[in-house]
Design goal:
alpha/beta, 8 strands, 6-stranded mixed β-sheet, globular
């Protein structure tokens, strides 16, 4: 244990915060003989009691196992580097970007890329389950979103919204209803609140034109995966 703690401190001194966090998390987590690598783990206690709309996964796929278009690889490296060197940015009064939107056609690895980004940062991946968050009752969806955002501030994580257009569709669409407008207004408010745990919000969509314009602008970075084979897992 002393050797592992010394290794974590050395990696932190080298600004390899992702590696250091994974080591420290392993030291603080009791072993579970019934869990295989990559299996789903129980949700963080605060999330489990406050909101059942997320599934927690410990990412096991590193970025090097994905085939990335050079432009996409560069954009991901720049985004991750900001978080690896967050202390340097903050020393100059800046903050790393915390909200990224992944855009591309279905089946080109957006979800795999989100998992790889969480792995590189040493953070758990919390995937939002819309069936447990979105309801037909007036105002309840916004309340559940509030509990979700409040809960993830208790620990650093990657909050992942897959197929984000299901939640963030434009308020001007023909099938727009009042509840969706209220949900979007609440979401806009939540994502603007200060980030106190270095958590990331990662969302994916294959229909960027359907996203509400004000919501799309809230993302600090948009990474577009255009080719059909972008971010696919490298064949072993």
């Amino acid at each position: 244990r002393r050797s592992a703690e010394a290794l974590a401190a050395d990696e932190q001194a080298k600004k390899h915060s992702g590696v250091a966090q994974r080591i420290n998390r392993a030291l603080s987590t009791p072993p579970n003989p019934h869990r295989a690598d990559g299996a789903h783990r129980s949700v963080h206690p605060s999330l489990n009691t406050a909101n059942a709309g997320v599934t927690r996964t410990e990412p096991v796929r590193p970025l090097k196992e994905l085939y990335l278009d050079p432009l996409v690889a560069r954009a991901c490296s720049e985004f991750l580097e900001e978080h690896h060197r967050a202390d340097v940015l903050r020393a100059h009064g800046l903050e790393p970007r915390h909200r990224v939107l992944l855009v591309g056609p279905p089946g080109n690895g957006k979800t795999s890329l989100a998992e790889a980004m969480a792995y590189e940062l040493g953070l758990p991946l919390l995937t939002v389950r819309y069936d447990a968050v979105v309801t037909s009752y007036l105002g309840e969806t916004a309340q559940r979103l509030r509990r979700l955002f409040d809960s993830v501030r208790t620990e650093s994580c990657v909050l992942f919204f897959d197929e984000f257009d299901a939640l963030g569709a434009s308020r001007g669409e023909a099938n727009d209803v009042g509840e969706i407008r209220r949900v979007l207004n609440s979401f806009l408010q939540f994502v603007e609140e200060p980030n106190t745990t270095d958590s990331l919000i990662v969302a994916t969509t294959n229909r960027p034109s359907s996203l509400d314009l004000a919501l799309a602008r809230r993302f600090d970075r948009t990474i577009e995966l255009t080719s059909a084979d972008t971010a696919i897992e490298v064949a072993q």
